[in-house]
Amino acid sequence: MNAARALALVLLAGTAPAVVCAQTAAPVWQDTRLAPEARADALVRAMTHAEKLQLVHGLFPPRANPAPADMIPSAGYVPGIPRLGIPTLRESDASLGVANQVEQRKGDVATALPSGLATAATFDLDMARAGGAMIGAEARAKTFNVLLAGGVNLTRDAWNGRNFEYLGEDPLLAGYMAGAAIDGVQSNHIVSTVKHFILNSQETGRTALNARIDETALRESDLLAFELALRTGKPGSVMCAYNRIEGDYACESHRMLTGVLRGDWRYTGWVMSDWGAVHSTVKAAAAGLDQESGQELDREIYFAPEKLDAAIQTGKLSEARLDEMVKRILTGVIGSGLYDHPTPTTAQPIDYAAHAQVAQRVAEAGMVLLRNEQDVLPLAKTARKIVLIGGHADVGVLSGGGSSQVRSVGGAPVEIPLTSGAAASFARVTWHASSPLAAIRAKAPQAELSYVDGRDPAAAAAAARSADIVVVFATQWTTEAQDVETLALPDQQDALIAAVAKANPKTVVVLETGGPVLMPWLTQVPAVLQAWYPGQRGGEAIADILFGDVNPSGRLPISFPKSADQLPRPKPVVPAGLNSDAASDAGAGDGSTLPSWDVTYQEGAEVGYRWYAAKNIKPLFPFGYGLSYTSFAFDGARFTGGAAPTVTFTVRNTGKRAGAVVPQLYVTGPDKGTPRLAGWKRQWLKPGESVQLTLAADRHALARWQGGRWKIPAGRYALALGTDSASAATMQAVDIPAGEISN
Ligand code: BGC
Q1: Where does a domain end: 308, 335, 362?
Q2: Could you read off the pLDDT of 170-182 as tens digits, one per residue?
Q3: CATH number of the domain that 679 lies in?
C-alpha cells in the first residue's frame, strides 16, 4: 500500500490525529511542537516497506555502482525519500574539519582545525563548541548533512595511531569536550555522530581485536566518556566500532547497543556501523545496529533489502524491529534539526578567512609549553640570527592521517604517498600550508632567518652554532589504521636535536606529534613547545607563542611517559603470528578473515594519570600540566563537603603578562582509590588581576558503578586543588553523603 493510499484510509477511518495534525491538516511528522520520536513514528507509519528498507543501508561513494547522479565523493550516501521530505544523507568525515582524504574531491578545500588533543588541551568547552560549529557550517555549505565526528575513545595507549583525533585520557574532560563539539556541529541543523562505540582502543589489528575489560571499569572509563558526550551533545547517531568487545563485534553487541545505549541511557537516535564493520544480518540487526554504512566495504551487503526481507519472512527478525531501525534514523534526523532545515543542494560560499581564525584560536589555546628554562621563551623580536631546522617548517605544519584528513585551504605543500601498510589506500603524509618560517619572518623582519631541513645532523649543528636562537621542528606522523611502533621520534630526530643542542644551548624544540613522544634530550634543551598537529594556522600560532604575542595556556589532556615501560602495556600489542600490516586494515576489509585476538585492558578505569597514581610512578609530564609566560598564585582555598562539594579560592596573576590559568579539582573516594578529575576552569587574568573562583565537583567523578547504577558512596573524600594531576596545591578531607545519579 502506498503512503497516499494509507493516508486516505486513515483519514476515512476517522483516525486523522495519528497522521494529520487536527489544527493545520499538515502531516503529524511536520508538527514541530511534537517530540522527534513522535514525528519519526508517524513518518514510519506513512512509509512503504521498500522505503524503509532503503534507509537502513548506505553506499560507499568511491565504490558505489551505479552511482546516484547527485552523489559526490565522500564517506557515505543514503538516498532520501523526497515525497516524505526525508533528506538524502550525505556523510562526510569531520573530526578536524570537512575531510577530503587523498583529495577525492579535487580542489575542494576546507578549514583544518588542530588535532583533537589540541582542542582538548584548551580545557575550554566554548573552544570545542566553536570548532564543531565551524566544521558544521562548512559541511552544510558543501551539502553534507551527517558528520562522522565526535571521536571520544579514551587514549589508553600512547602509540594509538588515532590518538590525535580523540580528546585525551580523562572521561570527564573527553566526554564534555566531545559533547560541546557535537553540539557545535549540530547547531547547523545537521547530524553528528559520536564514535567509535566502543573500546576501539588501538588501530593495529582493529578489526580483529577482541577488547576485554571488567564491566565496572568500562562504565567508569570509556563508557562514561560516551555517556557524557551523549547527554550533553545529543548526537543524532552513534557509530559502532570495528573491534569486538567480550567476544561480540561492537556492531553486534546486544549488551552495548541495546542494554547500555538504549536501555540505561535511553538513547533515541540511530546506530550506524563503522565502514566495513558489519558481519551479519540477523545478529547485527537484533543487537541494535540500525544502519549499515559504506556497504560496499563489507564482505556482503548484510542489510540489503533481500537479506532483511528473508530474515523477516523466516521469522528471524520482526517487522517491528525494521520499523524501529527506521524510526531511530528519523529521530536522529529530526532531532538534529535536519528534517526541518534541509541542506542546500548546491555548494554555498564559505567565509574561510573567518574560519581560519577559529582554527588559529584553538591552536594558540591548545599548544602546551612543556619546558622553559631561564625564560628562554618568549623570543626577542630583536634577535639577529634565527635558524629553523626540520619538519618542513619552511612550508607548513604536519597533520595526522586517515579518514579525518582535511585538504586545507592553501593546499598541501608536502604530500608523501604511502607505499605499504594498512593506511596506504587512504592516507598520505600531509602538511598544511601554514609556514612557521613565513610567520616567524613576519615577527622579526630584520632578523637573518634561515631554514635547514635537518636530514644531516652535522650540517644542522653547523648552521645552528652562530645563531642567536635555534628552533628545531620535530615531527611524528601518526595515522588511522596503524599504531606507531615506538614512542621515540622517528628518522633519527633525537640525534638531530642532541647535535643541535650541543652546538647551541639556545635550542627550542617544537613538537608536531600525534601524542606523547619520548624526549631523551629534554635536559639538553631549554624550551619545548608541544604544538600537536596544529592545523591550518599552526605556523602562525607557533610564531605567536614563540614571540610572546600569545601566552601559552594549553594543558596536557594526556600524560607523557618517561619511557614506554611506565605504561600499562610496555609495547604495542600486535596479534601473534601476524605482522602489523596484515593485522590492520583500512576499514576496507572484513576482520572475520583474521583470527580474533584478545587484548585485556587490565588497567580497567585507571587510564592515564590514574594509572601513574595507582602505580605511584612519575610521568615525564603529568595530565593537566602546562607552563605560562606569567605566574599565578592560589590563596585561601576553602573546601565544602555535602551533596555538592566545592572548592572556593582566589587566584592571582603574579607575573607581567596576561594569561590563562586552568585550576583543577581532583577527588579521591572513600575507597582510597586514585584521584579523578572532578572540575576545572580556564580563567584569563591580566597582570596583577585576581579573581575568586568556585569549582564544583562533578557528581560523575564521585560516583561508582554499583549494582547496575551510579551510586555515590557515603564517606570521607579527599578534595585536591592543583594545576595538574600530580601536584595538589592544597587538599582537604570532606564528608559526602550517599547519593545516586539517575539515568
Ligand atoms: C573510520 C571512521 C570513519 C569511516 C568513514 C573508518 O575507517 O574508522 O572513523 O568515519 O571510516 O570514513
Answers
A1: 335
A2: 999 999 999 999 9
A3: 2.60.40.10
CA of 481 to the centre of ligand 1 (A): 10
Let me know if residue 562 belongs to a domain. no
Residue 363 CA to residue 367 CA, distance in Å, equals: 6
Q: C-alpha cell of 151? A: 571521536
Judged on CB neighbours under 10 Å (0-12, 13-18, 19+), 683 is middle
When pLDDT is averaged across residues 355-380 and rounded to a whole number, the result is: 98
391 closest CA partner among 460, 330, 329, 483: 460
CA 222 to ligand 1 centroid distance, Å? 19
Residue among 480, 584, 585 whose CB has most ligand 1 atoms within 8 A, to mutate: 480
Does 150 fall in a domain?
yes
| Residue 115 maps to a domain | yes
**How would residue 582 be classed by pLDDT, with cut points 50, 70 and 90?**
very low
Helix axes of 436-443 and 538-546: crossing angle, nearest 10 degrees: 40
Measured CA to CA, the distance from residue 139 to residue 146 in angstroms comes to 9
In whole angstroms, how far apart are CA 48 and each of 15, 79, 644?
19, 15, 52
- Angle of helix 3-12 relative to helix 36-46, nearest 10 degrees, comes to 110
Last residue of a domain, one of 335, 359, 386: 335
Give φ, ψ of 561 to 5 degrees: -80, 155
Nearest to 719 by CA among 703, 728, 731, 729: 731
Residue 551 falls in which region: left (phi positive, over 0), alpha (psi -120 to 50) or beta: beta
- Give me the CATH number covering residue 77: 3.20.20.300
Query: HEC string of 80-131?
Result: CEHHHCECCEEEEECCCCCCCHHHCCCCCCECCCCCHHHHHHCCCHHHHHHH
Q: Which of 147, 274, 293, 298 to mutate to test the pocket of ligand 1 (most atoms within 8 A of CB)?
A: 274
Asked whether residue 732 is domain-assigned, the answer is: yes
Ligand 1 pocket residue status of 93, Cβ below 6 Å? yes
Q: Which of 700, 399, 730 is nearest to 538 (CA)?
A: 399
Gap between the terminal Cα atoms of the chain: 40
d(CA 498, CA 472): 10
For residue 233, which of 281, 175, 170 has the smallest C-alpha distance? 175
pTM for this structure? 0.96
* Residue 197 grid coordinates: 562505540
Q: How many domains are there within the chain? A: 2
3-state secondary structure of 243: coil
Q: Which residue matches cell numbers 619520548?
A: 518
**At residue 384, what is the residue type?**
R
Extract the C-alpha cell encoding 610: 590514574
Mean pLDDT (the chain) is: 94
Sign of CA pseudo-dihedral 57, 60, 61, 67: negative
40: containing domain: 35-335
Q: pLDDT tens digits, residue range 12-43?
A: 333 333 466 666 678 999 999 999 999 999 99
Beta-strand pair 448-452/469-476: unpaired
Give the residue whose CA is nearest to atom 11 of ligand 1: 275
